[in-house]
Amino acid sequence: MERNRPGGGLYVLAFSVALAVYAGSAGGVVLHPNPTPGGPELEVPAGQRPSDDVVGRWSSSASVVALSPRHIITTAHGGGGVGSSVTIGGQSYQVGWYYRHPTADLRVAVLTDLGEEPDLQDYVDIYRGSDEDTQTFVLGGYGVGRGDPLQTFYNDQWVTYGYEWGEGGNDTLRWGSNRIDPSPGFDLFAVWDGPGIAAAVPYEAIPADHDSGAGWFLDDGGEWKLAGLTQAVERTGESWYRNSGNPELPDPDEMYAVRVSTNAYWVDMALDGPLAGDFNTDGTVNITDLGALASNWQASGPGVNWSDGDVNHDGKVNITDLGAVASNWKHEYAPPAAATMGGGQPVPEPGTLALLAVGAAALALRRRRKG
């Protein structure tokens, strides 16, 4: 059965005029109340969802999902950077460095820990299929939940058409569910159906404040895999499932996520480690990367990142980083089985050495002009 949603392509227009907004900072999930008065909060039970330790918090600005013992993934618009705190699996870490997708709203970060290397015990693989549409997914996020009901007076009675978002910070993990709808023009798309709607799923949920980067998980043959990362919702501060003027009409709010499967190649590259010198992580080392390094030449400090031109993560952009650009000039990323990646340093050819000399001279000239 097709899901209830606005007809005539209105949701596409609504998004284009910014009625859809980025989900706020960290992770929240709004679920419908238990129909049994006084009953417990409804959420996807343990055993029907990923481990709680798979989902974490990037400071107070985004949710994250663990992809390896050291790597987490989140949306790029969530804020923060090198040195930001990440809490996952009950432990706190710092972002050592991160890779930002050149076009999609994604970033993969490498965690560091004072005293010992992080070793996350629970993490997931990414979903690589192209059949996400119509599948039921599990949504997990930290932060606010359901607040006070939104009601309108209709046919001589008060009728609930949605809920305000609750108050508080990003300290509570909630698990809900929904179904991915076909969506022209968006990565992943779903709507928040109301109670009693035939298309609704058990534990029907929608992201709320603090949910950027929260995972959309699919059960792939008994293994939970990451299919999407929450990016935006239709409105802020509240969530609707009925029309406020005529609550007899369904009017489910929309939610959007970055589709991971279409970016699987980039995620694999980020986990493996991009080519040394590929500062914009587009899979090749070229003039764009040299320009990034030139723009940050001689920069130093704890906030200096890979994207600034810091190949060896020493907090400086200098001749060592320029040498990496020269060594991998015009090289392209290939999976580890096909080529040695993750910062390998092939012997520079004569033309590349010339580039290094010219690049060094140009950077020196730029530095003198700035001085």
TrEMBL record:
Residues 346-368 form the Ice-binding protein C-terminal domain. CDD domains: Dockerin_II. This is Ice-binding protein C-terminal domain-containing protein. GO terms for molecular function: hydrolase activity, hydrolyzing O-glycosyl compounds. GO terms for biological process: polysaccharide catabolic process. It holds the Pfam family Dockerin_1.
